[in-house]
Amino acid sequence: MNYKVYSLAILLVVVASCGKDLDVPELSAGDANFSQVVAVGGDFLSGYQDGALFKEGQEKSIPKLLTLQFSEIYFQSGSPTAKSKFKQPLMPYGLGFGFNSKKWESEFISRITLGYKVNCEDTESLSPLKNIISVSPSSAGMQYLVDGGYQNLAIPSATIADMFDPALSVSYGDGNSNPFYGKFALNPGTSKVINDVAMLNPTFLVLWLGMEDIYNYASVGGHNVDVLSAPLFESYLDSVLSILTYGGAKGVIANIPSLDDFPFYTLVPPRGLDLTLSKADSLNNLTGNLFGFVEGSNGFIIEDPGTTSGYDQMGEGEYILLNVPLDSMRCDFLGVFTQIPDRYVIDSIEANIIKGAIINYNNIIYQKAAQYGFALVDMNNYFSTLTTGIKWNGADYSTEFVSGGFLSLDGYHPNQKGYGLIANEFIKAINSQYNATVPTGNCQGCDGIKFP
Hints:
By secondary structure, this protein is an alpha/beta fold. The chain has two domains: 37-99 and 137-262 and 348-434, Rossmann fold; 273-346, no CATH class. The protein is built from 14 helices and 16 strands. It has helices at residues 2-17, 19-22, 43-46, 55-58, 62-76, 193-199, 211-218, 230-244, 263-266, 277-286, 326-331, 348-372, 379-386, 416-434; strands at residues 37-41, 98-99, 108-118, 124-132, 152-154, 204-208, 250-254, 273-275, 296-298, 301-303, 311-313, 319-320, 345-346, 375-377, 390-392, 395-397. The strands form six sheets. The chain has a five-stranded parallel β-sheet, with helices on both faces. Strands 2-3-4 form a three-stranded antiparallel β-sheet, with no helix packed on it. Helix 7 (211-218) runs antiparallel to helix 12 and helix 8 runs parallel beside helix 12 (348-372). It is globular. It starts with a helix and ends in an 18-residue tail after the last helix.
């Protein structure tokens, strides 16, 4: 009994001595004002994932997660009514819809899910399953404008030039290929995103611009799409910042990750044609030794409009997109006897365009963040770190497809847990820039990939 009393006394002394360490740290917005947060960007700020925009994903979007953490400051101060306001134009519950990367099949798909699929070799395995949408977006879309405007004006697939184009607010039924913004613009048909944002009088901006200007090109293998030039990107970005900071708003801006950090571009190796010596010799005989096939790894044969022959053999530094018909490669010798179509491939010239644009855009983003006093989130470096893996709350995360736990089933957009990790990187940058003490989040309720 004396031993128990003595142990209890020691425990009480230890707890008492740790009292100061157990105090909840004082939270502060520092030099920032989070009372009216507005997000401007494309896919990654909208919550787009698994190839689609859907309600559960939107509810875990980066800006939504940020405002939940900003609100902790006001709750601690005893003024919950002053918390950050943040309304989003939510999709109805369900699988939502998104852009089909194979538009010749259907313009739109619903959320990609993980399920069992039998391939051309009659082997069943878990695979991402794409769901073609048969209804028009006008009958399956998000909420219309309510209560004077939304704070999340991130529009899937929208480029920085689209922020200034009233055509983006035209409805899908009236000819707009983007079905989203027309549903919640302040004045559909005439609104510009930049003006709708300014009308909200933001005190703090969350910006991620330029991704779509590069990756809309990359996602179709550079097929019938151009990358916005660096001078034009700089001009548009400066206009965004000068217009939206006119009233004294502060903010945070993210830069652009590398092509090599997304399995949509890296999962299928360009030199993945593995041959035995006898098969290599047979192919050389059949093709007149045109490609010099060898034992071991060889480049696939691709359509290449830039060559005299119209085709070429792939080398390192080139990319095959994840939406390539894998069964055709596996069983019908696509990439061997038949060239892989240009729309599934990023050749060396296109890769240089993409990588050069990323470098130039990121330099511009860095300069403009410094000029306007914005916090800069180095997503280029963060995604590079993720390729080798990180730990969060005791779990491992990487950009490995499906198993990495960070990216969704489309191989490009993060899942909810991934967006939670990114939101914390935004918070770290904000705290550093504005002398704030916004707490990072644990993303309670955030889903990873759902297995059947």
